[in-house]
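Retro notes
What went well: the complex prediction finally ran end to end.
Inputs used:
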Amino acid sequence: MAEHAPDLEAQLAPLIPALRRYARALLRDRTAADDLVHDCLERAIGRWSQRRGDARTWVLAILHNLAMNQLRRSTRRGRHVELADADAGDPALARPATQQDRLQHEELLRALAQLPEDQRSVLLLVGVEDLSYADAARVLAVPIGTVMSRLSRARERLHRLLADDAAALPVALRSVP
Amino acid sequence: MTRPITESELQAYVDDALDAPRRAEVADYLDRHRDIAQRIAGYTRQRATLRAALAPIADEPIPPQLDLAQLVAARRPPWPWRWAVAAIVLVGVSGAGGWLLRDRLAPAAPASSGIAALAQEASDSYRVYAPERAHPVELRDPAELARWISERIAHPVSIPDLTQAGYRFMGGRVVATTHGPAGLLMYDDDHGTRVVLLIRPMAVERDTAMALHTSGALRGYSWAARGIGYSVVAVAAPETLHPLADEVRRQIAAG
């Protein structure tokens, strides 16, 4: 086990920023997300010798499964919506240059939180973590066709949510391209 | 005639996942279908905004609880287990020198050299010779033993006198270690407690602070000075053994 450590650290360490980003985008809570990444890393270290294929896909799959278990538990306790809204103003999720950008980012992340989990995760894995469709299919344990249809539905739904938001905003705050 | 454009290919256009010829065909298609082009452009903006909104998370410093090296270290088997399997000697440590020593040994490879190896060899020798009833030592004459050991380890050795501390010199022998011959000196007290001092040249860690090590019921203090390593081992409490080791070190330094 221990003799794998240099290889393990060299491959896992560069993935931690992306793992934290994916976990926080799913859970919308910094502490809960980092706790999840911690569990994920412990599992990855423990099962390092059993990994197959690309390390990034493999470890993202571990994280994804942990996140889904956690979200299911939260949903059962009726805390899902609270979690999603709890720190919409988290400074770490909104540190862009301008107030305009900040509002736009918050708005998008609020809309993202309203997507079903299966759509949200595919949007994040493909659009943010740059996984290929095949790798995203491996992480989610679904066929590529399912990845494509979820991606299409996720983008359309996010678009509609944002359009509704924009329509609901007072005219003075509506952004002008 | 080009193949019809699928919804999946429109998504792949957003993700820039098409090969160049097909990408050109999709771009051409979008030029001719403004309503679809508008939808796809919206998706592309949405994708860029999402990346920008989440990018700061990946730029944050990694919190200490996610330090990979520490997580790996924490998963290593506890010391007593490693001991049995990897034959690593050094367990307990004392003082700043001890911590440095421990850090140096922390990598998983068995401690096969340096002061830890010496400590291991001293413990091994103790286990072989200290329980011996008939022949615990080979030579009892201090002068003769000192000559023998000095010759074999190519370094002048004198026999420390521990009578002030309540330990009589019993004698000693030359013993084999994986790092060549070593001198073994044995002492005992009125209760029959035997103490072993192992002496041999050091190829690495030629000068170290004194460090406590534990091997089962055995305790030992090991150190190196001017290229010679010393390890004092006994089944005794550290409080008993430490002053003895200090006295040995003092006499050797005094020459």
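What we learned: The interface with chain A takes residues 7-8, 10-12, 14-15, 17, 39, 42-43, 46-47, 49-60, 62-63, 65-66, 68-69, 71-72, 75-76, 107-109 of chain B (CB under 8 Å).
What to try next: split runs per interface for comparison.
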